[in-house]
Known about the structure:
- Chain A is mainly alpha-helical.
- In chain A, about 75% of the residues lie in helices and about 0% in strands.
- Chain A contains 9 helices and no strands.
- The first copy, chain A, starts with 8 loop residues before the first helix and ends with a helix.
Amino acid sequence: xxxxxxxxxTAAVESAMHxxxxxxxxxxxxxxxxxxxxxxxxxxxxxxxxxxxLFQRTLTHYSAQGLAGRKAVLEGPxxxxxxxxxxFDGLIxxxxxxxxxxxxxxxxxxxLGIPDDEVGEALRRDTEQQLALLGECVREGxxxxxxxxxxxxxxxxxxxxSTISGLRVMSRRGASPDAMHAVADLAxxxxxx
Amino acid sequence: xxxxxxxxxTAAVESAMHxxxxxxxxxxxxxxxxxxxxxxxxxxxxxxxxxxxLFQRTLTHYSAQGLAGRKAVLEGPxxxxxxxxxxFDGLIxxxxxxxxxxxxxxxxxxxLGIPDDEVGEALRRDTEQQLALLGECVREGxxxxxxxxxxxxxxxxxxxxSTISGLRVMSRRGASPDAMHAVADLAxxxxxx
DNA sequence: CCAATTTTGTACTGACCGATACACAACCAA
DNA sequence: TTGGTTGTGTATCGGTCAGTACAAAATTGG
Lengths: 193, 193
């Protein structure tokens, strides 16, 4: 047909994701994105149309990646309570490994809220899927008797997601791992049987 | 001595605060700040030195205001558990009244992390004071037997502050008041006797 | 080898960024 | 009234912003 790409599109999205993740949407310039991806301006705009469109791509990429990892933990072995504990441990480890950048979705929600465009849609979709995943785990926990009954799974899922967000913000302000583990433990104590 | 100011400095800080609060630090331009405060560029720079310095002023102003309000609730009447419940109710009402802008401190933490300057110092100071206030309330709750014993007040304070941050993010993504109340209630159930 | 098609590099666009220079207006002390 | 001092308005600074124009380069099917 014509001249082929000289780069891997997914790898470029991944690189752009790290740039946005580290600096936030507004503070990341198109120049930053070129340097992060190694692409020229032409290639960036030819492939991704605009800064916002590329950001939306990175968001959905981040979301899919994060959901897959979380799903692997929440559908793993052990009781639902065990799996939730593992999820929190994983989150804290992740923060320590990734320089306390927080969660791209949480950071974006705080910076932009839910904008009335595709970015907002991506944020909403991620939230819905997180809640669905957590809600399913809660339902399983009621059955395996590791989680308390009495609240709707949806409410407990909201509580867990809120705790996740709280931990992400906590990490962002540099709280100690011990403090974060204590918070996760206290949150778990509210839902375990 | 010389020509007097034609504006109230505190009122200008308050206006700038709302601009930063609504749009975030990076997305708020000096032009926005001039329009929000009603001042000319000269007056802004003559009075506040730089955009960042003005932002730091708005942060400390916001923090002092928020801490005063929270202190009034947490040192009010009733058991410690009652006061914590009132705090959460107040937070949710506040979010609904203020167009789900979240908390300026939480939004800034998510957007900037803890920068190595006076802004970072202001963020740290606010966190410390929030934790101190919450910790004191927890200590009182152990004494009046409305709160569970067994965790250190510092850990419980971290949990409560994390829940507050979580609720702020939750509000930012447009969660329903019912869902937020359910989260606050579940968090309270983890700490009440 | 040649057209057709797409990617790439370079240069550039107008707009806006944060910040400043400077003249002038407005006040106070004397 | 005058001199000193400070606030204000206007015009502007160099730099960077997101985005584009366009020609050269690289590939395919014919």
